Amino acid sequence: MGIRGAAGVRAARGPAPHSWTVSTAPGGVPLLGHALPLWRRPLDFLASLPAHGDLVAIRLGPQRVWLACDPALVQQILMDPRTYDKGGPLYDTMRMVLGNGLVTCTQDVHRRQRRLAQPCFRPSRIADYAQVMSAEIDAAVGKWRPGQTLDVTDAMMDLSARVTTGVLMSTSLDPGLAAEVRACLSTVMRGVLLRAVVPLGPLYRLPTPGNRRFDRALARLHHIIDGIIAERRGSTARHGDLLDTLLGATDDAPGPDGRAVPEGLAQDCPHATAAPTPQEAPHDQEPLTDQEAHDQLMTFLVAGIETTALALAWTLHLLAAHPEEERRLHAEVDSVLAGRPPAPDDLPRLGHARRVVTEALRMYPPGWALTRVTTTETTLAGHRLAPGSTVLYSAYVLHQDPVAFPDPQRFDPDRWLPERAGGVPGGAMLPFAAGNRKCIGDHFAMTEAVLVLAAIAARWRLRPPSPRTVRPVPAAVLSPGPLPMVCASRRGPDGPAPAVPSEAP
Predict the structure, then answer these.
(1) Tally of domains in the chain
(2) Number of helical H runs and strand E runs in the chain
(3) Is 283 inside any structural domain?
(4) Which of 43, 189, 202, 433 fits 505 for a cystine, CB–CB 3.0-4.6 Å?
């Protein structure tokens, strides 16, 4: 048996071989199991479970879900995607919207999908996209006015939508159509969250006003995307955007053994050297079908907008609550930018901005809890799992572990300085997951987030109109909810600013 620490705290490992602890979460009740605490206070409940074991069973009615509390177990799960495949209620709901795209597809088709999408996210392409990002960010932030009150969560969603649609489809969207796409995405994402959190199945087919709005927005979004793909297929014009790269990709990139292997896979995943299954094997020179292109475009739109927007909203909230860190950020952007908008070439010198974003991702990872489903009998923490078992891991829980992150409730961007970041255990920091299912757009997202943060910090201080406590809203992603803030111009010197209370469960 392992040694457990205080409530919610995982004990540090000593040099001796580790014995895994497997247990059941306390407090279950007949029939419902642990459904009530997981529904009412999911962050508190999950964060309390590492005190009870390395692998903890949660009962949801008749179903048992296993929470992996130790980073080493989570790494085992993420590095073996054939045994621990994507599945569970959230992915089932997301497939309804995204189709069988890169985020939601099962492992048997993932290798081909990743290989075809990988050229879109090469470093050279990210540098090209950054030019578009900078222009869109400057246009959006330039419209803010002193004294204006923004809902920062909405503002970041709108800004991220501008950036993502601009990079993805450039000239295919005129301003009116781009605004319609953003409105449809907002409606669809609200519907996805509702259906993932409250899985009422057939009730969502009833003709209620909310269901009709969701269905109309989703149908319109599919129609717009189908039209854009058809237009591109029928034209020889080149736009130089991500969609051009995606439609031009073919499934023929050779790997070391002559088989096609996606970039980074061999480094990320020890199982990548295993022979591909017949479904995973490359198909010579085959580009994406229209349906595959449609599903990938939906995936990039949804995943590229909401997660980055929420990470930025949390970042701005944390800076408002910690004016000393905000002043350090202002000093950096003033030194690097000297009053001009940020450009891609500035990124290497915006180190503190990057650390601020990284620390916000640690404290409030948008993808706070995800599931995998076992495809075969396997053993985790010495415990046998039958095929079809649901395994849960929570980046939020891992990121609050004081063994990996001393004083985890403290907003401390300097913990990501090179001399300190090297002490973070492998697998403890997972804002973009890991292994060959790691977010393909992680570099894209960090580039966008740092450019946005620098552009805002160069011009504005954002403060809530009155002190308030912001509590995370855990749904499919971890949101701060509405986040009103007043824009104050930085033309004058930085002065003292009130801290904003924040409560992290």
Answers:
(1) 1
(2) 17, 13
(3) no
(4) 43
